């Protein structure tokens, strides 16, 4: 059995309980060494064989898996964040199916969640944005034209942009051309949840300048949208005048509500 495990965004204690247990039981771990925190491997058995996939091709990864499968080993394929985002796991799963090797996926905490935590942000604020676009700039690996940054920017919603820190000048131009105002709040979150985490608040226009001044060139997420400026409408979820399945609306306004109203 092969288990694809989401390692989480970086902090060694942000892997799931299940993911940690699978690592502890693994006989073979193949991990994305360029992104996964190596401290996550400290809980592996002394006899566990560890491979860094940053130095391997898909074919080499499969050879390790095939060899481990013949020996009935527990194999963990450790990916950063959650494997479903930019993890290139589909091609691996298809090959495992072709080889008749069983697999399953253990989800993880994505770095876009850790970035929101670092920013003290909510991506879906009432009256501001109720959608989140997760995407990246086109680079050596292309992006379909209909999914270009410029195309998504036209919606004016919250955007979380992966794998684009080295193209921030071009990213700014695409965001502005697509419809964001130059002063739209933005943030660069470097290594979210790691000890060396950096949060750089800026605007769409100043993305490249901000990253240059901080010396950030990779391993960062870009967050864009008005959700970062602190203005929003109160949600209906806890509004005393709003009826839900669990609570009837009330015309009574409590003390805390009155104080907020006065403000």
UniProtKB/TrEMBL annotation:
Leading EC class: transferase
What are the UniProt keywords, alphabetically?
A: Cobalamin biosynthesis, Methyltransferase, S-adenosyl-L-methionine, Transferase
Keyword Methyltransferase applies: yes
Metabolic or biological pathway: Cofactor biosynthesis; adenosylcobalamin biosynthesis
Give the Enzyme Commission number.
2.1.1.-, 2.1.1.133
Q: Name one GO molecular function term.
A: precorrin-4 C11-methyltransferase activity
Task: Give the top-rank taxon of the lineage listed in the UniProt record for this protein.
Answer: Bacteria
InterPro entries on file: 4pyrrol_Mease, 4pyrrol_Methylase_sf, 4pyrrole_Mease_sub1, 4pyrrole_Mease_sub2, Cbl_synth_CobM/CibF, Siro_Cobalamin_biosynth, Uropor_MeTrfase_CS
A GO BP term, please? cobalamin biosynthetic process
Gene3D superfamilies assigned to the protein according to its UniProt record, in alphabetical order: Cobalt-precorrin-4 Transmethylase, Domain 1, Methyltransferase, Cobalt-precorrin-4 Transmethylase, Domain 2
Q: Which residues form the Tetrapyrrole methylase domain?
A: 1-207
Annotated family = Belongs to the precorrin methyltransferase family.
Name used for this protein in its record = Precorrin-4 C(11)-methyltransferase
The species this protein was found in: [Ruminococcus] torques
